[in-house]
């Protein structure tokens, strides 16, 4: 008989196992329904949450959701668990953990010390008992600071990825979009391109152009071409200027195999990037992307709900001390997150869970054009994430990525969030903006005219290195 059951309004609800309990306790979302994992009714969902609230946290150490011998992500989670860090909350249930996280005792210092003692499954479980405001409140107190050429994640700061994608990888088009973003004060987290043609020679050309632009204007940021990690290793071997190594990751060994990666390949790439010693204020050299639905779309979810298996990806990221991680929350499509409400909830979950695990999480606030969502939904999510202290957001020209054909945040959105919440760019990047005479006396981006010095210097500098 199952160990997991709960009564609600005179009806007995029995859950097959721990994975089934977690799935039935999840907020409604299309991906879990597609997989046949979702609660069959609101009453069943409430009953599952009641049973989950009474579950001891230690149960997740006793019952791996995927067998230890069958999955290297499970082995990573179990082998890296810090029992000493876990000790202060070992006695708690999942519901008790939620209460503690919302108490005054959960200070930034306490949360940072606790992170190595939490497993993804514990964090996913407690998030299922949280309202949106709880996710915001807890995440806001989690500070994860990383560094390469500037410092990301400091309190009172909001980083941005400048994403100047081009459907033909035209160097001048990419350079023009990059300069446009810089003039709005974007690009401190990274200037990162998704290549339209993902091969080694093309990626080297893109990297050399970006690095030339960065060096010519002495910009204290990092650049990245988001090619496959195995390409990045070959690119490093050819002596190209690689700052960050990028890879999409997921929460199971099988899903990562679908991406063509393993933990050993990621370690090889990290070692290669560290050997270059290109960082100036830190040595966090990895950049990961995740997203709810990735494991399910590869049929590699092992029967886990999409939010739980997504949270397991953060254990993979944590193992490699990345500079940046972001969830592309609405990118995979309405089959997994159907509408604006589901996308907003998933974005807040991903951000909070990653931060609790000590991962420097940012978010691509985005949606595909066939989802039941619009830019008002994205405005809501980015505003909530700014309140929650997200490390960075992705920005593209006009909020419309013309290469990937999806809707994201814009350079203007970064100005809105920084102005509304009193947030600033990374300190080293902010100092560069000041040197370029791009800030007013209140530290805000100036409205520049063509004759302004900053505009002239950036445009006169050209694209640099090969463009």
TrEMBL record:
GO cellular component terms, semicolon-separated: cytosol; ethanolamine ammonia-lyase complex; ethanolamine degradation polyhedral organelle
Enzyme Commission number(s) of this protein: 4.3.1.7
Cofactor list: adenosylcob(III)alamin
Subunit record text: The basic unit is a heterodimer which dimerizes to form tetramers. The heterotetramers trimerize; 6 large subunits form a core ring with 6 small subunits projecting outwards.
Main location class: other
Record key words, sorted: Bacterial microcompartment, Cobalamin, Cobalt, Lyase
Gene Ontology molecular function, alphabetical: cobalamin binding; ethanolamine ammonia-lyase activity
Pfam families with a match to the protein in the record: EutB
UniProt catalytic activity: ethanolamine = acetaldehyde + NH4(+)
Membership in a protein family: Belongs to the EutB family.
Annotated transmembrane regions: none
Note on how the cofactor is bound: Binds between the large and small subunits.
InterPro entries reported for this sequence: Aldolase_TIM (IPR013785), EutB (IPR010628), EutB_dom_2_sf (IPR044939), EutB_N_sf (IPR044941)
Name of the featured protein: Ethanolamine ammonia-lyase large subunit
Residues holding substrate: 161-163, 194, 289, 364
Gene that this sequence comes from: eutB
Localization in the cell: Bacterial microcompartment
NCBIfam families named among the record's database cross-references: PRK15067.1
General function of this protein: Catalyzes the deamination of various vicinal amino-alcohols to oxo compounds. Allows this organism to utilize ethanolamine as the sole source of nitrogen and carbon in the presence of vitamin B12.
Gene3D superfamilies: Aldolase class I, ethanolamine ammonia-lyase heavy chain domain like, lyase
HAMAP family: EutB (MF_00861)
